[in-house]
């Protein structure tokens, strides 16, 4: 049903609560969302919308909470089948599990099978948009975009560019890469609800000439997102310093290739120098904070408070399969725990913003998704705030909506996701 009045509790974010405070968020215990033609037409108290639209079909979600669909700002669709693989640290994990698995995507049938499985999993956890890395194989991007289009999703996918320090089956000569990526961008960028991201994997697997090619693609395709990894582990940073002795630091490797700007999404960004923090803020680049990945791979504790204070657009990301969960609830919990270890306590409202409107801004989609506001696309989730006995016991004590949702943030999983809608349609 694409035109309907949805009733339930609603949380409406006007702005980032870390900046604007809690007054930027309105809670209605008896709220409603009017969906027309795949978009949100109105949101407000149930009584008001009911009297204004008495003849619209109704969907009653009871005491469940209606929120924008979750936005995962950095994930590897191609790592779906190797999530939670035991390894030491990043390089060991990449070589032992990741590169062999990505090599399998040379088979388009396998790529199509994993694309469907990946989207099933994302939706089951309430994620309605992600920026997903595919593999070096163009068919891996076609498979994910085809599957996302068939489901009516807003999704971003990128072909991973590498030309060294990875198996030959995943490397392509720098000179060949422009023509491997450009047709994909031409085919998918802006088609239906899809976007195609320029995706040089990270400095260690990209030569300077390959990063130049990525920069040329970025100049030729000013609407396409640019995504890569930055400063995830200290050993990686030392490796980058050896590989790029001419660069001032890790960030500068990307800067020299013209890859930094407001459409750049940098995964991790944990071990930054002051100069790099300033460089990210000055260029307007964004950060995808990947907390379950950072603990799983032992990478370090991201400084969320500093990113917020510096005005850097920041979102949350699962980083599947370096990350250990498809769930953005689990990801919010991990972000909270990492912040705690740094002496900072993001409010539940801040965590929810990072997983919705904040993530949408990071992906350049802040005017389309991530908020329950008129004109926005009707991608939303319906959360059961008492989805397990433990959560129900705790939320029964809740004194306000934040106290009611925090146990679901900390302990919830796919059982909390009662329904998911994309462009107004249940998926
Ligand atoms: N750095 C380069 N590639 C990857 C990847 O696939 N996962 C993570 N976590 N870090 C990376
Ligand atoms: Zn990653």
Q: Categorize the overall geometry.
A: globular
Largest sheet: 7 strands, mixed
Quote the beta fraction.
15-25%
Number of strands: 15
Name the hetero compounds present.
guanine, zinc ion
Strand order of the largest sheet: 3-2-1-4-13-14-15
> Portion of residues in helices?
25-40%
Number of helical segments with 4 or more residues: 17
Rounded radius of gyration (Å)? 21 Å
Secondary structure: elements and pairs:
Layout: E1 4-13, H1 17-20, E2 25-36, E3 39-45, H2 46-52, E4 58-68, E5 70-76, H3 90-103, H4 108-124, E6 127-133, H5 138-150, E7 155-161, H6 174-188, E8 194-200, H7 208-220, E9 226-230, H8 234-243, H9 250-256, E10 264-268, H10 274-283, E11 286-289, H11 291-296, H12 304-309, E12 314-316, H13 328-341, H14 348-354, H15 357-362, E13 380-383, H16 389-395, H17 401-411, E14 417-422, E15 425-426
Parallel strand pairs: 1-4, 5-6, 6-7, 7-8, 9-10, 10-11, 11-12
Antiparallel strand pairs: 1-2, 2-3, 4-13, 13-14, 14-15
Helix pairs in contact: 4-5, 5-6, 6-7, 13-17, 16-17
């Amino acid at each position: 049903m694409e035109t309907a009045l949805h009733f339930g509790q609603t949380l409406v974010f006007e702005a980032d609560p870390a900046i604007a405070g809690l007054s930027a968020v309105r809670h209605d215990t008896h709220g409603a969302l009017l969906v027309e033609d795949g978009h949100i037409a109105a949101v407000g108290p149930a009584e008001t919308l009911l009297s204004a639209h008495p003849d619209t079909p109704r969907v009653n979600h009871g005491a469940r909470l209606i929120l924008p669909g979750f936005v995962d700002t950095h994930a590897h669709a191609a790592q779906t089948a190797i999530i939670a693989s035991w390894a030491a640290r990043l390089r060991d994990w990449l070589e032992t599990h990741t590169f062999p698995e990505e090599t399998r995507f040379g088979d388009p049938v396998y790529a199509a099978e994993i694309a469907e499985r990946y989207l099933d999993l994302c939706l089951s956890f309430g994620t309605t948009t992600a920026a997903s890395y595919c593999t070096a194989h163009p068919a891996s991007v076609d498979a994910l975009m085809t599957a996302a289009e068939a489901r009516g999703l807003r999704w971003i996918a990128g072909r991973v560019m590498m030309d060294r320090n990875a198996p030959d089956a995943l490397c392509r000569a720098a000179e060949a890469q422009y023509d491997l990526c450009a047709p994909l961008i031409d085919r998918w960028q802006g088609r239906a609800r899809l976007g195609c991201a320029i995706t040089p994997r990270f400095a260690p697997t990209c030569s300077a000439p390959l990063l130049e090619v990525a920069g040329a693609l970025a100049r030729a395709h000013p609407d396409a997102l640019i995504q890569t990894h930055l400063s995830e582990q200290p050993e990686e940073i030392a490796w980058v310093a050896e590989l790029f002795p001419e660069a001032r630091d890790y960030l500068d490797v990307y800067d020299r290739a013209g890859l930094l700007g407001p459409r750049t999404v940098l995964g991790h960004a944990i071990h930054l120098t002051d100069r790099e923090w300033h460089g990210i803020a000055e260029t307007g680049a964004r950060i995808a904070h990947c907390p379950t990945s950072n603990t799983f791979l032992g990478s370090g504790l991201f400084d969320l408070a500093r990113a917020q204070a510096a005005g850097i657009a920041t979102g949350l990301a699962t980083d599947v399969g370096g990350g250990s969960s498809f769930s953005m609830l689990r990801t919010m919990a991990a972000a909270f725990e990492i912040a705690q270890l740094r002496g900072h306590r993001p409010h539940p409202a801040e965590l929810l913003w990072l997983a919705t409107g904040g993530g949408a801004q990071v992906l350049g989609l802040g005017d389309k998704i991530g908020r329950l506001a008129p004109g926005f696309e009707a991608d939303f989730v319906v959360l059961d705030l008492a989805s397990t006995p433990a959560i129900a016991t705790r939320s029964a004590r809740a004194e306000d909506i934040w106290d009611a949702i925090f146990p679901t943030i900390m302990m919830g999983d796919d059982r909390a996701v009662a329904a998911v809608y994309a462009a107004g349609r249940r998926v």
